[in-house]
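Page 42, continued from yesterday. The earlier attempt failed because a stray header line got pasted into the input along with the sequence. Redoing it now with the clean sequence only.
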Amino acid sequence: MTKVFMGVRLQRLREERSLTQAALARALGLSPSYLNQIERNQRPLTVPILLRIGSVLGVDPQIFSEHDSASLVADVRDVMGELPGSEGASLAELKMLVENMPGIARAILQLQRRYRMAAERAESLEAQFDSSDGNQASLTPSSDEEVRDYLNRRQNYIGELDEAAERIGANGADALRERLQRLHGVTVLAEPGGDVLLRKRRYDPQQHVLWVAASMNAGQQAFQMAALLGQLDHAQLIELLVDQAALSSEAARKGARLALSNYYAGAVLMPYAAFLQAAESSAYDIDLLAHQFGVGFEAVCHRLSTMQRPGASGLPVFFVRVDRAGNVSKRQSATAFHFSRVGGTCPLWIVYEAFSQPGRILRQIARMPDGSTHLWIARQVSTGPARFTAPSKSFALALGCDISQAHRLVYAKGLDLHDPSAATAIGTGCKVCERRDCPQRAFPSILPVSRMA
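This time it went through. Structure tokens are written below.
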């Protein structure tokens, strides 16, 4: 474990509980001068002290984890790169800000997010007034980023929902249908009509009927049943989690409720302990796991990104879903890997090659500008039935892990994981990429010249 200097964060916890330095020192079995030095970052937080802090203050020691700090540092670094006159902020200064005052760092991100939304609204209004056809532009901002930030702060693991899902012991379509009927009086019916590409389920609370798209397979229908079951069985728990997330809008709260109910559905169909054992024994063979648990390739990738139970964690992975235009619709990381919020994604990334080879699992060893190297796999998937007038939805999924953990994946077979020349040099997006000699650069970097590689 590296030395952790987060004295301001500890001071904030103490002040929130109206404790003096002397009172907290007594409770922790430390001298007041020693605690004072910790709060002033003159001494690090050791593991024994972290455990005592967790017990005395009633907090999870994970709040001092560097996982969240690394992601925040990268996010704030991107934001600072967009602002004029911020070239003087060094990486060390940003790290000190994030580790000691994460609330201030998140406030900076929130301000940047609101500034970006305001700029987009202004552009929409300008386009509206300049438009000759009089069509109004949409001014509704997306709240996805806020929900993603909350899940990433939890390392994509929601233990309360995971443990509740394991307890029900019913993960097949028939068992879930029976549970909905017995506990909530809900009848599940297949809906043959409607736009099934846009609506996978429709619940009528007055008639207690859940309509699921008839075009979905049994596993997909079971997922929709389990998601509704989470909303009905654990409404209070989900609402408590949404409150704790401290989201800024009702749209974000609604998105969080949906994300949490879908999380519960995945945990029901792939119970944590059984899924982890199967994943480890199969060397994380996604197709094999999909067949064993009766779910799709994407559902397995999503579940793998949530396996962070304390004391029983799985392989730390990152998971991304993109469309052909480069829009990122899912982005989850169980590690400190950072997905840039600006500048798009890198065209040299293997995820885009997947569209030209549908059905195949592609592999790539990729090196980031900071020297970190990862093993990525990518595959194109389609959802929904295709019709002449309405093609199916098509996405590319990418799952990656740090190269030091790649040997645990079946997809590493035959690759030289230790050959530096085998890695493809990629970045987090043109506008925040430090590589000056990239042959695929689409936009000039917004980073200062001094930080360009």
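Notes: Residues 110 and 146 are 9 Å apart (CA to CA).
Reminder to self: strip header lines before submitting.
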